[in-house]
Write a structure and sequence with these properties.
The protein has 385 residues and is an all-alpha fold. Helix content is 76%, strand content 2%. The chain has one domain.
Length: 385
Amino acid sequence: MDFFKSFIEQPLVIMFLIAVLGYALGSITIKGLSLGTSGVLLVALVFGHFNLEVPSIIRNVGLVAFVTAVGFIAGPKFFRNFKKKAMSFIILGIVIICTGALTCLAVVKLGGISVDLAVGMMSGALTSTPGLAAAIEATGSDMASIGYGIAYPFGVVGVVLFVQLIPKFLKIDIDAERERLAAVSQQEEAASPLKQRKEARSLDEFGMLPFALAVIVGMLIAEITIPLPGGASFSLGTSGGPLLAGLIFGHFGRIGNISISVKKSTLEVMREVGLALFLMGAGTQAGKGFVEVLKDQGVILFLLGALMTVVPMVIGYILARKIFKIDVLTSLGSICGGMTSTPALGTLITMTKSEAVAISYAATYPVALIFVVLACQFLPLIVGL
């Protein structure tokens, strides 16, 4: 028994055991719905409940690998698409976060929930770790962390299910939408004045050198701090910095005659492995004390947190489709970005078999990241804490 206990508590064993069980759970399909890689999160929550943790460095490595890969994938088309629909993506990011903040405010006023707990729930519902940090700073209370832990699991799973359910409810033909999006993209490329140059020299077969270089540049960007009103500050952090660097590297693809592009197969592997590692770390951390919190605070808090996840997505989708007339796949990608949900993006890419959805995610994500931090800082002031 002692041998088994010491064996199961090894971080490497925990990681791969979570991967086995998580992917097995994620492969279960019920009426066309599946958790996919997010099954890893649910298994990780259980492990975290029993104090079996994955080191935080693993979570950070996973996050950096995932967002850098997404940046490289979206980069070649990102800046052209962002310039074309910039205002739509910016407004979408702002509206989604503001809707979440208004829902949080309603929970405080009508539900009688303390503002520090509610703001923490909002950061969890929007799966924003920077938002949690801002909430803790603004409230000076540990209740923000508890609220985050309550709302975070549904914040992840809810967006994953949303991007799968919307096409089913509305009877949308994903294959037809993917072909339509690809056709539009090809027309834009044909009309673009930019021409592809003579072959660039590759430094390594798989592109790991430029990938690692993009991570380093991204971490440097992550250290840049921007002052905000009220004495607070903002930075893109380990999620936004590498994402931006990946976009830049993916857009240019070369420095002189030296290639800084990465093979598609390498990016796909890094994206999937990175997402799994991130969910392992985030899940085991959020799982600690999760059951106890629900027992003490009541299931109603979990439901209120779910409300903070669902309402912004519904409003954002209606805005994208009805007002901005954005196609379905691009709209769902922007919802993933507006909700700062990396797992949902992974699910959406797998479901649609299209990398193009990462473009709208990358366009909306930075705006949402900034505004969720601002919302977590200013909501306590608005309520009068």
